[in-house]
Amino acid sequence: MNEGQRIEQKAIRNLDQLKQCLFDRIRERPGTRVALYGYTYQTASLVNEFFSVLGDRFVPVCIIDNKRAGESGPIKSCPVMSFEEALHLVPNIDLVAVMIDSPSLTEVLSQVAFSPLQDKEILFVHRFAQPLAEKEFATLVEQSTEALARHGAVWYTDEKNWYCCYQYLKQTMELDGDVAEFGVFQGGSACFFALTMQKLGFDEKLLFLYDTFEGIPQSSALDLVEVNDFSGTSLERVQSLLSDFDNVRFVPGDVMQTFRASSEGPFSLVHIDCDQFAVTQFLCEQVYPRMVPGGIMMFQNYSFGATLGERVAVDYFFKDKPETVLLGYDGAAFVVKQ
């Protein structure tokens, strides 16, 4: 068994396993003084069961739960109290058992780890990170999906892509500069961008949307998309979808004409989703100088074989630049402007 396998073998996978670990600890060290974090059904069941089986070898000091502090606990000698109240009992606690297996687990562990309880033994579920289940992000996905479905929109980006957009927005929102998307189609990603900017409190930034809103205007020998592909949209349709957002600006027309003549920018985040070699090459050349330091250029179809021309354009442009082309969680490429 190598070190990685040994560490994995020690991990607690779920609350049932945590319960067994706690039971074993108390049998090995009767009288261990335990604080349980999280007043859930599993916690109440554990306390009653342990008292029944272990008797006075089980010494529960308190149940920590900020929302339910002051409620009656499963037994009189184990009060439910807030985290701040529990800190007064630190000298009387030997072990903290965190009875939570949800995305909020990390926040709870941070609270414990940066407090006097950090010196105590801590039992918790070693939960795999599930970024798509983060409460804030999951809510944004639900709201965006509902809006798009209500307008009958078709979109091709998935939740992994939206998660990267969400992370990049949070990373760049404190920077100067606006946000832009090149290649809008029926507004799937644009809707998510607009809603996320609003929910995060950054809707004072403008969101520029560049598209013909009539389909692909040109194609090259490296492209599989053809002229008039993605024509099932219109400016009016996307405007209707985003009518509740005052910070959205539409720039209709061939981007190789509209952007060259424009003065928009600087930008903190751009999302390039044009599926083609020539227009991606053009945007690399034209958008790159308008990016603020720390700003992110995102190339949606970099890893997609059917749009390999996009990758050719990106790699060629950045081969002599100080930035490195990186791959995100979703397989799209991103570049952080130096």
Structural commentary:
Helices cover 37% and strands 17% of the residues. It is built from twelve helices and twelve strands. The protein has helices at 3-10, 15-28, 41-54, 83-86, 105-113, 135-150, 159-172, 188-199, 235-241, 255-258, 277-287, 308-318, and strands spanning 33-37, 59-64, 80-81, 95-98, 121-123, 178-182, 207-211, 248-252, 267-272, 291-299, 326-327, 333-336. The strands form two sheets. The chain has a seven-stranded mixed sheet with strand order 8-7-6-9-10-12-11, sandwiched between helices. The protein has a five-stranded parallel sheet with strand order 3-2-1-4-5, with helices on both faces. The longest helix is centred in the middle third of the chain and has 16 residues, at 135-150. The radius of gyration is 27 Å and the shape is elongated. The two termini are 44 Å apart.
Compact summary:
This protein is of the alpha/beta class.
Sheet-strand content, in percent, reads 15-25%
- Identify low-pLDDT runs: none
Question: What does the average pLDDT come to?
Answer: 94
Number of β-strand runs:
12
The succession of helices and strands, N to C, reads HHEHEEHEHEHHEHEHEHEHEHEE
Which strand order do you get reading across the main beta sheet?
8-7-6-9-10-12-11
Percent in helix = 25-40%
| Number of H- or I-type helical stretches | 12
Radius of gyration: 27 Å
Q: Please write the CATH class name of the largest domain.
A: Alpha Beta
- Class of secondary structure makeup: alpha/beta
Q: Shape from CA axes?
A: elongated
CATH topology of the largest domain: Rossmann fold
CATH superfamily of the largest domain: Vaccinia Virus protein VP39
Number of domains: 2
